[in-house]
Amino acid sequence: MDIEKLKEIDIDELVDIRDVKINMKLSKEERMLDYIKQIKNPYCYKYKNHKVIVTFNNDTSLTLKDCLEEYLNKY
């Protein structure tokens, strides 16, 4: 995902992460899919009045899927 394109997205078009609800009754895979469905763009969302842009270091082998799995396994 091009960070410059993410910067151009209007904040009013983004989903506020506080509105995303994780359903713990779903399987890990279903939680990931549900999260993506709710957040719409996991690389760019908002928190209150702040735009959050998620980037990853190119020197790592971790993917967004890996990071989401790690996050969702905590909850």
How would you briefly describe this protein structure?
With 75 residues, the protein is of the alpha+beta class. It contains three helices and two strands; from the N terminus they run H-H-E-E-H.
If you had to describe this structure to a student in words, what would you say it looks like?
By secondary structure, the protein is an alpha+beta fold. Helix content is 39%, strand content 11%. It contains 3 helices and 2 strands, in the order ααββα. The chain has helices spanning 3-8, 28-39, 64-74, and strands at residues 44-47, 50-53. It has a two-stranded antiparallel ribbon. A hairpin with a 2-residue loop joins strand 1 (44-47) and strand 2 (50-53). It is flat.
